[in-house]
Amino acid sequence: MVISIEKRFFSFSRKLFFSVISLFLVFASSFIVYQYQREKAYKVDLLHV
Questions:
Q1: Model confidence over 6-40: pLDDT tens digits?
Q2: DSSP H/E element including 26
Q3: Alpha-carbon distances of 20 from 13, 15, 33, rounded to whole Å
Q4: SS3 call for 49
Q5: Which of 32, 10, 29, 7 is nearest to 19 (CA)?
Q6: Residue 37, pLDDT score
Q7: Quick check: 10 and 18 in contact, CB under 8 A?
C-alpha cells in the first residue's frame, strides 16, 4: 500500500515570492501609467504655448 502525498498548494516561500512580485508589478504598472499621462499632458501644454 503506497500513499502518495501530493503538494497541491505552494510553499510559504513561493507564496511570499509571488505576492512580492505581484505587488511590484502593480506598483510598476501604475507608475508607468501615471508617467505616461503626465508626459502626455506636458506635450499638449508644449503645443499650446
A1: 556 779 999 999 999 999 999 999 999 999 999 99
A2: helix 12-48
A3: 11, 9, 20
A4: coil
A5: 10
A6: 98
A7: yes
C-alpha cell at 16: 511570499
- Give the chain's end-to-end CA distance (angstroms, integer): 82
> Which is nearest to 44 in space by CA: 10, 36, 4?
36
Could you give the CA distance from residue 3 to residue 45 in angstroms, rounded to a whole number? 69
Whole-angstrom distance, CA of residue 24 vs CA of residue 46: 33
Q: Looking at residue 3, what DSSP letter applies?
A: -
The Cα–Cα gap between 9 and 18 comes to 13
Q: Does residue 47 surpass a pLDDT of 70?
A: yes
